[in-house]
């Protein structure tokens, strides 16, 4: 909306029934506890003949789709990956998105239709803000309304006619996370699907084929994407194996969003900056996977620690006229 901090979502169906259903959804969403969440709350239904609504606009943001789909024939896929903030930024963004979903699920809510187009991140690669849009789809976890999904991200049980819930949210998030890090779809990115007829893709999305990194079944192996060891820690590999192995047909076996958040933050904390290309990679690797520069012999790690028992802190904040060396002494001892 020109001149105002709002965006408009327009729907193609303009029937009286569609308007009534949208109005009912918006009324429900307005009653949900979303004030302190990073979601674009719907504000007002549009007047006829248009069907849609006005929502909060988040400026300076783009969908995470921009970090998943590289441009056609890029001069350097590695350079494109690093220009998007590299590995560490992707891990931190995914951790924050998982935090939002975990908060919604903890309040008994389901997002219903997670997909890269609905997940927004800072356009500036030095920033790490995340937001969710299209929140007219947010519903109570016990809501029996028809399931919603974006093709490629719907959980198998949803594709078979089941309801959207926190477990289907977890599936869609896992698909998006794997794409963001490895740049390949975990189910339909295999060579069998890429080179097969359209019905093979449907089988893959329904969980009737092994996922591309299945530890034992090689039928749907993929020659696409980044080397997994370069972008996934052991914990993240285990999570994805759980999500797309047992979790494909058993939703209860999927990792929860809190677990995803913890493991993404932990993975981000285990990255270091390459002095050669400026990219980030896991500290247990001896050579930078992006430019083959040897890992530096000395890495500076900055840790922030707050201890309420230190005498320099009070209930009103830090005391005035504190000797800086006193703070440094404490910080030094804590770091050791």
Keywords:
three-stranded antiparallel beta sheet
What's this model, at a glance?
The protein has 336 residues and is α+β, with helices and mostly antiparallel strands. It is built from twelve helices and twelve strands.
Architecture overview:
The protein is α+β, with helices and mostly antiparallel strands. 36% of the residues lie in helices and 11% in strands. The protein contains twelve helices and twelve strands. A hairpin with a 2-residue loop joins strand 11 and strand 12 (317-318). Helix 3 (86-106) packs antiparallel against helix 5 and helix 3 runs antiparallel to helix 11 (257-269). 36% of the residues are buried.
Q: Based on the structure, what is the oligomeric state of the protein chains?
A: single chain
Q: How many strands appear in the DSSP assignment?
A: 12
| Rg calc | 23 Å
Question: What is the string of SSEs from the N terminus onward?
Answer: EHEEEHHEEEEHHHHHHHHEEEEH
Produce the secondary structure layout.
Blueprint lengths: L5 E5 L5 H16 L10 E4 L6 E5 L4 E3 L13 H7 L2 H21 L2 E2 L8 E4 L7 E3 L6 E2 L15 H4 L6 H17 L8 H4 L3 H8 L22 H4 L2 H11 L1 H4 L7 H13 L1 E3 L6 E3 L30 E2 L2 E2 L5 H12 L1
Antiparallel strand pairs: 1-3, 2-3, 4-6, 5-8, 6-7, 9-10, 11-12
Helix pairs in contact: 3-5, 3-11
